[in-house]
């Protein structure tokens, strides 16, 4: 029994060393920095990737990815979480509509940052909400992610039509003032969201691990991203959001996320605590 335990511990230690080498190799070869991502999440995703790439060890996976640049985009899909839906957590969007939008109306123009936008579902949700509230015409939405393939999908705004029923139910629960069908056309099993929304969204590559602030914004929505970061990378990301937000601007994060233990916590006030919406302090 002791021998089995020792063997398992040795294998685990070897896996951790190989994981560190792989992440360092990706950083130096492709300039994507996953060193601050939560290790438990990385382990799960990389074990799945090993099966996909038919590799027995992370060293084999590293060799494949480093020497075959075409393999890296596929690995990136495993390393970045691409699970989202339109108006996900409708109560969050209802809180934006009822509590945040009245204050956003006071600005002559608006800039919104949707960080970690994946395939664009949240960015389009924010655009639809702002259109319903009469604010989209004066708004520019920056939707950012590190996965180039997902950004291409987001810019296209095309989703499987079988997902639309769920999107529509979420939209209705968010306090919708229009029908979701007003914003897309459907054919051949796909729903394409329209130019009205796309004209106000800029999809762009941006890494919360390595890049800096690019604009002053009134609202940052970064949901279900911080949960995959370790504490120091969470602090860095929240620091970027603090720098980007105007005084008394708003930050929304995921339902299972918190800023309470972050070094940046003092920069924010609770605004709608139940929906994890915060306001940047005016004095900072």
Describe this structure in words.
The chain is α/β, with parallel strands linked by helices and 284 residues long. It has 2 domains: 2-79; 90-280, Vaccinia Virus protein VP39 (Rossmann fold). The chain is 44% helix and 19% strand. It is built from 10 helices and 10 strands. It has helices at residues 2-30, 39-52, 58-67, 72-79, 90-104, 121-132, 148-156, 164-173, 195-198, 231-244, and strands spanning 110-115, 139-145, 158-160, 184-187, 190-193, 201-205, 217-222, 245-253, 268-272, 277-280. A 7-stranded mixed β-sheet has the order 6-2-1-7-8-10-9. β4 (184-187) and β5 form a beta hairpin. α1 (2-30) packs parallel to α3 (58-67). The longest helix is centred in the N-terminal third of the chain and has 29 residues, at 2-30. The radius of gyration is 20 Å and the shape is globular. The relative contact order is 0.13. The mean pLDDT is 93.
